[in-house]
Amino acid sequence: MISELRFYLRLLPRRLPVMILLFLSASLAGVIVAQRLPAVYSTSATLLVESAQISDGQRRSPEQTSAAEQLQVIQQQLLTRSNLIEIANEVQVFDDQASMTPDQIVRAMRSASNIRLTIGRDQATLMRLNFSAGDPVKVADVVNRYVDIALESSTAAATSQAEDTRAFYEQEVQKYSDEIDAQSSKIATFKSANADALPENLEYNQNRQSLLQERISRAERELESIAIQRNNIMRVFQATGAVTTQGPPPLTPEEALLQQLTGELSVARSIYSDSNPRVRTLQAQIDALEDRIAAAAAAAPDTPDNVPTAQSTALEISLAEIDSRTTTLTQEIVDAQEELVTLRSSIERTPANGIVLDGLDRELENIQSLYNASVGRLAQAQTSLNIVAAAKGERVTVLEAASVPTAPSSPSRVKIGAMGIAAGLGLAAGFFFLLELLNQTVRRPADIVKSLEITPLATIPRIETKAQKRWRRVLQIGASLVVLTSVPAILWAIDTYFMPLDLLYEKIKSRLT
Asked: Distance between CA 56 and CA 379 in Å, rounded?
């Protein structure tokens, strides 16, 4: 191991000029770049998403923007082409901006801008805006312009969302209000067209139907009784020549009408109260007939009962009264039957009308519930808009404002110089070991054993005279001096006639990254 190390140490002077060339080239280039790179200043501002100071009482809907999404939208808006060009033109960020195209300005602004979001559960939602450039004042101006745009965008987005929500629910309320009016009109039209067959009139119609059926039955029984009475009067008159043999005298028309009205009054009182107009009308007619009958009885002269003419007249009067009562009852039956047919039709149509009306009412209730919900949401949307207008809702505020930096943030000149020296050492060492790996010549006994697989008995080293040693040392020193003088000259020529070393470094760095 020690012999190996000695062998390579003896070889080191032969490779020393080239190794010095590589080391000096990389080291000087690193030092020059570290000194020539312009100072870059950087500053930042921090934005915080504050929770709402006043709650609007409603949970966030899926369509509403969360705090994280709001910051992401603001980030995209900040880096839009129009904003970047506008800020660059206002601040004049770059020294050679007049010669830059809009695309170059946008790329440079995006490269110099750094926006980081801090979003997570159980922690504050933050946005850090950072910008780097050569002028500290311009750097602070750019970050402040970013902050202004972010705050304006946040306020405009919140206001626009609240206004859009309110406008939407205003349309919903108006729409459902119109639907309620249309549905109510449809229900009113249906009820007007089917007023006689509505569910609320079913009980009245059924009671009226029962009353008419009872009236028809009573009238039919009364007709039968009147027919029997007429036949009896005729038989008695034919057999005896008198209208009646026993019993009360025949009734006058006023007395018959009084009897009829008395029966109708009895029926009416069984259905209606005494204050009913019909009951009161019948009572008034009965009172008037009783007065007339009483007056006629007082003024009539006494006539003998056995006058034949009086019996004939009584017969005619009785038959006329019976025929008149029969006609009245017959007409009453016809009218009741006609009304009964109408009532039956109404009762039959009532269930179907009830089903249709229930459907219309359910639809009206559904629309009414939607209307009530929309009114409540409209009130909530108006409350949210008022909260946003009063700046009491969730908002973006400046947690830390941007300040003018007093010291450059980059480049790290010591680090770049150290990197150049390390690169020079690496190139020199790599060159040495690469040549040794590629050199396959036999230079020591170990190489003979390795190549020929034989063990020599003895080896004779190369014999060098003093003059040869002196000449070799002169050549090595001369080569080293040439390297020491040529490397700075070459770097100076590259920096002067080809490209400044700092620009060359930036290009190489950008290509590598």
From this structure: 10
Both tokens of residue 313? 């007249």
| Stretch 404-433: mean pLDDT | 80
Give the side-chain half-sphere CA count within 13 A for 424: 21
Whether residue 17 contacts residue 483, with contact meaning beta carbons closer than 8 Å, is answered with yes
Is residue 314 within 8 Å of residue 243, measured between CB atoms?
yes
- What is the rounded CA–CA span in Å between residue 205 and residue 408? 100
Contact between 54 and 380 under an 8 Å Cβ cutoff? The reply is no
pLDDT band of 252, cuts 50, 70, 90: low
d(C-alpha 77, C-alpha 237), whole Å: 120
HEC string for 263-299: HHHHHHHHHCCCCCHHHHHHHHHHHHHHHHHHHHHHH
Question: How buried is 98 (Cβ within 10 angstroms: 0-12 exposed, 13-18 middle, 19+ buried)?
Answer: exposed
Q: Cβ neighbours of residue 30 under 8 Å, at least 6 residues apart?
A: 416, 417, 418, 419, 420, 421, 423, 424
H or E segment at 49?
Answer: strand 41-50
Contact between 342 and 350 under an 8 Å Cβ cutoff? The reply is no
Query: Tens digits of per-residue pLDDT, 457-512?
Result: 666 666 667 787 788 777 767 766 776 677 677 767 776 776 676 666 667 766 66
H helix runs in 51-135, sequence order? 67-78, 81-91, 102-112
Query: What digits encode the pLDDT tens for the residues 33-52?
Result: 776 667 778 888 888 876 55
Dihedral (CA of 125, 130, 136, 141) sign: negative
Q: Cα 283 vs. chain centroid, distance in angstroms?
A: 73
Amino acid (1-letter code) at residue 172: E
Choose between 241 and 55: higher pLDDT. 241
Task: Tell me the per-residue pLDDT of 319-375, one tens digit each, with 9 for 90 and over.
Answer: 888 888 888 888 988 998 898 898 888 888 889 988 999 999 999 999 999 999 989
Percent of the chain with pLDDT over 90: 7
Interior/surface letters 120-147, b for 16+ CB within 10 angstroms, e for the rest: eeeeebbbebbbbbebbebbbbbbbbbb
Mean pLDDT over 224-231 rounds to 84
What CA–CA distance (Å, rounded) separates 298 from 211?
40
